[in-house]
Amino acid sequence: MGRLVLHDVSKNFNGFLAVDRLNFEVANGEFVCLLGPSGCGKTTILRLVAGLDTPSAGEIFLDGKKITGVNKECGFVFQEYALFPWRTVRENIEFGPQAKGMPKDELGKISQRYIDLVGLRGFENHYPRDLSGGMKQRVGIARAYANNPKLLLMDEPFGALDAQTRNLMQGELLRIWENEHISALFVTHSVEEAVYLADRVIVMSARPGTVKEVFNISLPRPRVRTSPEANIFRDSILKSLGAEITRAAAIK
What we know:
By secondary structure, the chain is an alpha/beta fold. The protein is built from seven helices and ten strands.
């Protein structure tokens, strides 16, 4: 399970309308990317879905249940890693299940499963300070999955990585996602990243953010980033997004 539905969702911050009458969904097991100019409300959407903020209007549902508070059915992966520096790799991954009261023997099984899945065997007892940026993000992904979420929320998780590591991590994320097949809502500024990862790409308008256009990325995986088919999608999305970036600059 993991079907997300946003129905006429708006968010107003003290007279500042961030998003306006949003309507879209993420199907069970689907990978959806959100693209849009800076300030269009992409991160706000993730926070609303996670229950960290409350919509000013409209409703959000996960598997038919309205989200009214902190959404414990979501896993969240941040750009800044957000790892606990005083906890080891294993202890970071075990944090969520531990908070839910999972027995110690089960904690070890869960954490080892995801340590192996993200390729960090041998680093179980390392601290975040000892890890590269890509390894830290692997821990973040493993920690999110260890909570057994219905939906994975990702806020530019690879934005701070160099290009080579970013490409590597995109491939790793798809490998993990195809293994777990949990619904994903992924925020990015990169059109190439969105075309490589997503089943669907949602382009948002300039502030206040709303859905401008949706692209179904009907390409088989694994995808070739530079293929003619990928370039056609990239060019179409760039054209749609470029108009909103220009409009956003004019609004400022």
